[in-house]
Amino acid sequence: MNQGLIPSRYAKALFEYASEHDCDKLVFERMQALSEAFASEPSLVKAVRNPYVSRRDKIQLLTTASGSTEGDSAMTRFMELLADNNRLDMARDIALAYLKIYRREHNICLVTVTSAAPMAEAEEKRLKQLIQRHLGSATMEYNHLINPDLIGGFQVSIDNEKLDASVANELKQLRLKLLN
């Protein structure tokens, strides 16, 4: 079976359950924390895949990484379901799939602005306003990253769209023109 299909099915089932129990936003926040934990701590993947780490420890590790508390029955029950079905190693992919489903259902666009240096507050505010105008009624989940390799300018990614107004891209385009 397709590796992407299984996480999507689990994420969809979790979203439906969370929506019915009016905790979809809380689960969204927990899944964000879990995906960030996987991104910032590569050893988390190794621990979850390690056959010598007990099921209980894996569940505890993942619930802690998601920021769950004793009262988060949805997350605890979900982690136990994953453990019962030997799917704990897919927790990261399920979290990412859940985030995608939640954003789609709530009309939230993931916006990432990458600039070569920190932007002035007024400049960033103006850029946010332009992006919001482009998005219309959609809500913006905004992230700003710094990448000095851009040399100057910025890149804007909105879900799968990308606008590259960086000096590095201009130089790349110029090199391509010179080669032709």
Give the topology, please.
Elements: H1 5-20, H2 24-40, H3 43-49, H4 55-65, H5 73-84, H6 91-105, E1 108-115, H7 121-135, E2 139-146, E3 153-158, E4 161-166, H8 167-179
Parallel strand pairs: 1-2
Antiparallel strand pairs: 1-3, 3-4
Helix pairs in contact: 1-6, 2-6, 4-5
How many beta-strand runs? 4
Largest sheet: 4 strands, mixed
Radius of gyration: 20 Å
Span between termini: 44 Å
In sequence order, what are the helices and strands, one letter per element? HHHHHHEHEEEH
How is the largest sheet built, in terms of strand order?
2-1-3-4
The name CATH uses for the topology of the largest domain is Peroxidase, domain 1
Can you describe this structure in just a few lines?
The chain is of the alpha+beta class. It has 8 helices and 4 strands, in the order ααααααβαβββα. It has a 4-stranded mixed beta sheet with strand order 2-1-3-4.
What would you note in describing this structure?
This protein is α+β, with helices and mostly antiparallel strands and 180 residues long. The protein folds into 2 domains: 5-104, Orthogonal Bundle (Peroxidase, domain 1), CATH 1.10.520.20; 108-179, Tubulin/FtsZ, C-terminal domain (60s Ribosomal Protein L30, Chain: A, 2-Layer Sandwich). It has helices spanning 5-20, 24-40, 43-49, 55-65, 73-84, 91-105, 121-135, 167-179; strands at residues 108-115, 139-146, 153-158, 161-166. Helix 1 (5-20) packs across helix 6, helix 2 crosses helix 6 (91-105) and helix 4 runs antiparallel to helix 5 (73-84). The longest helix has 17 residues, at 24-40. The protein is elongated and about 60 Å long. It starts with a helix and ends with a helix.
